[in-house]
Amino acid sequence: MASRTYSATVVSPERMTPAYEVPDMTLSHRAKVCSLYRRALKLSLDWCNDRAAWRGQAMYIRTVFDANLAVNDRRTQRVLIEEAERILDEYKHPEPYRAPTAPGGSKWERNLEAPILDPPPKMDL
């Protein structure tokens, strides 16, 4: 087995940020916004049959999210997220699109392989 050498970037202790100084909401807020954006795109795709028409809606959703990109106040961010969640719940599709082979899709569990069973025990009559 060949040994591998890894090069590491040396960072001076003055430039390192201790864990207690990193804002606690930055990663979770970013994950929430990304999840919200993705859910908005999927919801708009549920209501639209044509991808070309959906692209315009996707671009509009992106402009709405980009308009609030510079908001740094946590209270305002929380209000914007709650408002977006409310809008997504309000416009939820009654029958969302599911891929045919996904669970709940029209081809889910079609043509399953027969289970391999043990032969029945021998009976003496």
Automatic annotation (TrEMBL):
Assembly information from the UniProt record: Mammalian complex I is composed of 45 different subunits.
Record function comment: Accessory subunit of the mitochondrial membrane respiratory chain NADH dehydrogenase (Complex I), that is believed to be not involved in catalysis. Complex I functions in the transfer of electrons from NADH to the respiratory chain. The immediate electron acceptor for the enzyme is believed to be ubiquinone.
Pfam families found in the cross-reference section: Complex1_LYR
GO biological process: mitochondrial electron transport, NADH to ubiquinone
Stretch list, region Disordered: 92-125
GO cellular component, one term: mitochondrial inner membrane
Family classification: Belongs to the complex I LYR family.
Domain of life assignment: Eukaryota
Membrane topology, as annotated: Peripheral membrane protein
PANTHER family membership: NADH DEHYDROGENASE [UBIQUINONE] 1 BETA SUBCOMPLEX SUBUNIT 9, NADH-UBIQUINONE OXIDOREDUCTASE B22 SUBUNIT
Domain Complex 1 LYR protein: 32-90
Annotated localization: Mitochondrion inner membrane
Keywords, comma-separated and alphabetical: Acetylation, Electron transport, Membrane, Mitochondrion, Mitochondrion inner membrane, Phosphoprotein, Respiratory chain, Transport
Listed name of the protein: NADH dehydrogenase [ubiquinone] 1 beta subcomplex subunit 9
